[in-house]
Design brief:
The chain contains 3 helices and no strands. By secondary structure, it is mainly alpha-helical. Helix 1 packs across helix 3 and helix 2 packs antiparallel against helix 3.
Length: 82
């Protein structure tokens, strides 16, 4: 891993997910307004798979990028659940 301190990794991951959620809130409704909840759930599953593969390969940069993408799609899916 690039960063050895566990608490720093958790804080960095939370910040990156928050950035993805903010981007999803700002851009998501206009970009994917015609997408169904099922399609967004498939995008979420693909990004979760990318997160898991990057964690297993210990690639921190890919993990943080995929966390951003995951937060983006989670934020898009949450208003469609209501």
């Amino acid at each position: 891993m690039l960063i050895g301190n566990f608490s720093l990794i958790i804080a960095l991951a939370r910040a990156i997910v928050s950035i993805g959620i903010a981007k999803g809130s700002a851009l998501g409704s206009s970009l994917l307004k015609n997408a169904t909840l099922f399609q967004i759930a498939l995008f979420d599953l693909c990004s979760i798979a990318i997160v898991m593969i990057s964690m297993l390969n210990r690639n921190m940069i890919a993990c943080l990028i995929s966390f951003t993408i995951l937060g983006f799609f989670i934020r898009i899916a949450s208003p469609k659940l209501m």
